[in-house]
Structure formats: C-alpha cells, structure tokens
Amino acid sequence: IFVGGLEVNVSEDELRHIFGQFGDLVYVKIPPGRGCGFVQFVA
C-alpha cells in the first residue's frame, strides 16, 4: 500500500504501529526525503 503525504519526522515504527492495527505486516519502508511510504500486509 502506498502511503503519501507523510511528514518528514514520521518513522517506520510509527507506520508499523498505525497499520499493524489492521493486520500482520510483512514490510514497512519510508524512502528518505520522499514524504511517502509503503506498507505490505500478510496475504
């Protein structure tokens, strides 16, 4: 899942905490300086 519009101070751990409420996560990544991230759930 693409997650856009992130503040520069948002961490991968914060995304993991937020999206982890909706299911088990495989992957969470925020490319440096992009203001976006990617989250992948277990299928």
Protein architecture, described:
It holds the Pfam family RRM_1. The structure is a single chain. With 43 residues, the chain is α+β, with helices and mostly antiparallel strands. The chain has one domain. It has one helix spanning 12-19; strands spanning 2-4, 25-29, 36-41. Strands 1-3-2 form a 3-stranded antiparallel beta sheet, covered by helices on one side. The protein starts with a strand and ends with a strand. The relative contact order is 0.36. The mean pLDDT is 96.
Sum this structure up briefly.
With 43 residues, the protein is of the alpha+beta class. It has one helix spanning 12-19, and strands spanning 2-4, 25-29, 36-41. Strands 1-3-2 form a three-stranded antiparallel beta sheet, with helices on one face.
